[in-house]
Amino acid sequence: MLSPTVSAILGVTWLIVGGIAVGLMLRIFGRNVPTRGRMKAAAIHRALGWVYIGIYLVFLYAMVRKASGYAEFNSLQVMHFTLGLSIFPLLTIKVLIVRRYPRLHSMLPVLGLTVFTLSTVLILLGVGPYLIQKFNAPDTSGKSETELIALGGPLVDQRCQKCHGLDRVFDQKGKKSADLWESTLDRMIGLDPPLADVREPILAFLQNELAAADTPAGAMLTGAALVDARCQKCHTLDRVFSYTKTHDQWRTTVRRYAELLPDHIHADEVEPIAQFLFEKRGKAESPEDKQRKVFEANCASCHNLSRALDHARDNELSPRRWKRVVKRMERLAEERELKVWSEEERDQIAAFLAAQFSETPIDEDD
Ligand code: HEC
Ligand code: HEC
Ligand code: HEC
């Protein structure tokens, strides 16, 4: 995506190139121009024309990419897109006439002037509002938090309705923690980079006026709102609340979704959701859960957990035999100066692995 500065520089270059090309074209079609001068002007005109088309294609690509991220368009954007797209057929016709239809050459000046006029309006439409915003951006240096909040409110009104209604913002009042407001705002800045100029006051407003209280009750509100918003896309909430899970298990469930649908469930929402679900539908860890955790924490530093699980499935070792395997691993770990499990943890790992797959533990020990 083009940054605003790159866009502005490219836009101005585009107009200058277009302007010179138009000037040359007028010279070519003008009266009393010697043939040599005309040929030279035509050669430069052609080169500039290709530069112009190149920059246009870059803009076109960036515009299509950007438009796909918008939920809805306002009238300014619709106008911008329409003008931008209408240049495409005009340019195509112009190139075709130059190369294929010499008898239509007299149309070229009109086409050229039309394209140049459209590009000028297009750039003014794109750059104008941005420049106005830039010059109107309040000076925030040395402002107190209260002053920033006072600046932020009106800025939210002005700047956050470009792609969706303000209800989208105020519906979330008291339902997002300060941290989540920060990451939401940064996501919006990613969609609309000029917002970066007013990040500080808007963030101050969102965090102070709209954030959930930094208390357990506030965390519950945040979690409930997130579950409402994120967990009903594919099934009802009954499905979610019909299970009880340990904190770790909820975290695993939610993280899986966040990895599957990163644009729907954001990484920093996993913990608030898991915390909420654990409060609502949590259960204590069973001895087996604890054992599994010890196993997972200790046995994956040199090889996959599946190595041990496959071995467990294939060999159905008794707890005592498992203890020997774990001891062997312990020696390997000691050699490599890796953190080594305690004796109690050794028993837990052995018990867990024995319980995993041997339905009838065969104790063929000596
Ligand atoms: C360039 C377009 C654009 C602008 C400008 C914009 N938003 Fe958004 N906003 C979106 C889109 C698209 C979504 C839905 C996708 C998402 O949540 O990332 C959204 C969603 C949201 C949500 C709901 C997200 C959630 O977690 O459920 C909030 C809150 C929000 N915007 C706040 C703001 C605020 C505050 C501003 C002004 C600082 C702003 N938006 C400006 C495009 C925009
Ligand atoms: C992309 C669609 C989708 C979203 C979004 C989604 N789920 Fe699911 N969920 C499924 C599917 C598919 C199943 C498995 C089929 C079934 O059991 O209906 C499932 C099953 C579940 C189950 C039962 C099985 C298990 O893993 O324990 C729980 C609990 C659950 N989801 C919780 C959540 C929570 C919490 C969220 C929000 C963070 C969520 N789901 C969001 C699609 C989704
Ligand atoms: C210091 C690195 C290291 C750690 C930590 C480690 N292993 Fe291993 N593990 C190995 C190596 C190396 C082998 C292959 C050589 C061998 O079998 O002695 C192996 C092999 C195994 C095998 C296959 C044995 C076979 O005969 O095929 C099992 C089962 C196993 N590990 C289980 C565990 C368990 C359970 C833990 C956690 C208690 C663990 N490992 C931790 C390095 C490690």
Task: Summarize it.
With 366 residues, the protein is an all-alpha fold. It is built from 16 helices and no strands.
Structural class: mainly alpha
Cα gyration radius (Å): 33 Å
Instruction: Assign a percent range to the helix content.
Output: over 70%
Q: Determine the mean pLDDT.
A: 90
Q: Give the count of helical stretches.
A: 16
Tell me the number of structural domains: 3
Give a list of the ligands. Answer: heme C
What's the end-to-end separation, in Å? Answer: 69 Å
* Anisotropy-based shape: elongated
- Strand fraction equals under 5%
Could you give a short account of the major beta sheet? none
Poorly predicted ranges:
360-366
Structure in words:
Residues about 360-365 have low confidence and may be disordered. Helices cover about 70% and strands about 0% of the residues. The protein has about 375 residues and is mainly α. The longest helix is centred in the N-terminal third of the chain and has 33 residues, at about 35-65. The protein binds heme C (3 copies). One heme C binds near residues 69, 71, 159, 168 and 187. One heme C binds near residues 233, 234, 239, 253 and 254.
Summary keywords:
366 residues; mainly alpha; elongated; disordered C terminus; binds heme C
